[in-house]
Amino acid sequence: MCLAIPGKIESITGGDDPLSKKGKVNFGGVIKEVSMAFVPEAQVGQYVIVHVGFAISIVQEEEAMKVFEYLEEMGELEEPETS
Q1: Which of 21, 24, 31, 74 sits in a 20 to 30 Å window from 47, CA-based?
Q2: Which CATH number fits domain 5-74: 3.90.230.10, 2.30.30.140, 3.30.1050.10, 3.40.50.2020?
Q3: Does the pLDDT at position 42 exceed 60?
């Protein structure tokens, strides 16, 4: 099963062109590069939901922490597949 999971944006590169924006996103210590094309307004320090290598929405930190708790309870908290 493929899940969209939250991660914290550590850095953003790619300038003003939304299609070329990339972000380094931290998933509980595992950092992956993801496309920021769908959320060009996202900022460093915010949490985003990531699915198959794309940040698809911005979420509040509290909501991201709830998702991490649920995944841990389900035994599904592993290294995410983001590409």
Answers
A1: 74
A2: 2.30.30.140
A3: yes
